[in-house]
């Protein structure tokens, strides 16, 4: 039976350290993924949050155009495309939809629908599309989606999402693990 799988983009489909080379270059830092223990990256630079936000606005399109794929994501998504409907829901700003769709096409990634929310609030879209499962990297999003939508959420492990998880939010470490989990979940029906 086909399931509707909801998938975040940044930090799940893309590598979670995607922004670090830009931060390191522009702010004279030498950060690695292990240094990112909070989702709020503005805490890592010695400038006001408003200046960091403006810096991000200036480079976000370039970052999204050049984002590297997470390891094995393409293999899993190509297989899932035949079995499920793939809905990508991201907090990216809505004006970046063409850039995002072009990146998916350039990378050869399948999708049935892409929705950019411009915020981290994904619950209403998940409910509207009647998604059966969601894949995320942001801890509080994962917890809220699970609690509000009553669906399982796979949370990709990163240094910035190490808070405890409620039952129903499952920590995973790579895309092949996500594939295996989804297969077991469907078989258990």
Automatic annotation (TrEMBL):
<dbReference type="InterPro" id="IPR023214">
    <property type="entry name" value="HAD_sf"/>
</dbReference>
<comment type="similarity">
    <text>Belongs to the 5'(3')-deoxyribonucleotidase family.</text>
</comment>
<keyword id="KW-0378">Hydrolase</keyword>
<dbReference type="InterPro" id="IPR036412">
    <property type="entry name" value="HAD-like_sf"/>
</dbReference>
<dbReference type="InterPro" id="IPR052419">
    <property type="entry name" value="5_3-deoxyribonucleotidase-like"/>
</dbReference>
<dbReference type="GO" id="GO:0016787">
    <property type="term" value="F:hydrolase activity"/>
</dbReference>
<dbReference type="InterPro" id="IPR009206">
    <property type="entry name" value="Nucleotidase_putative"/>
</dbReference>
<protein>
    <recommendedName>
        <fullName>Nucleotidase</fullName>
        <ecNumber>3.1.3.-</ecNumber>
    </recommendedName>
</protein>
């Amino acid at each position: 039976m086909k399931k509707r799988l909801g998938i975040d983009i940044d930090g799940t489909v893309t590598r979670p350290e995607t922004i670090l080379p830009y931060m390191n270059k522009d702010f004279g830092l030498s950060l690695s993924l292990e240094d990112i223990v909070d989702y709020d990256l503005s805490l890592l630079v010695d400038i006001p949050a408003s200046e960091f936000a403006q810096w991000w606005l200036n480079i976000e399109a370039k970052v999204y155009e050049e984002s590297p794929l997470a390891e094995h994501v393409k293999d899993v998504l190509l297989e899932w495309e035949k079995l499920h409907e793939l809905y990508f829901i991201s907090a990216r700003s809505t004006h970046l939809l063409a850039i995002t769709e072009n990146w998916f096409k350039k990378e050869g990634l399948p999708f049935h629908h892409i929705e950019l929310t411009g915020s981290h609030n994904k619950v209403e879209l998940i409910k509207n599309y009647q998604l059966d499962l969601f894949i995320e990297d942001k801890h509080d999003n994962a917890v809220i989606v699970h609690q509000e939508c009553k669906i399982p959420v796979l949370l990709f492990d990163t240094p910035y999402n190490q808070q405890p998880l409620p039952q129903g939010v499952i920590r995973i470490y790579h895309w092949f693990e996500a594939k295996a989990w989804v297969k077991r979940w469907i078989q258990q029906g």
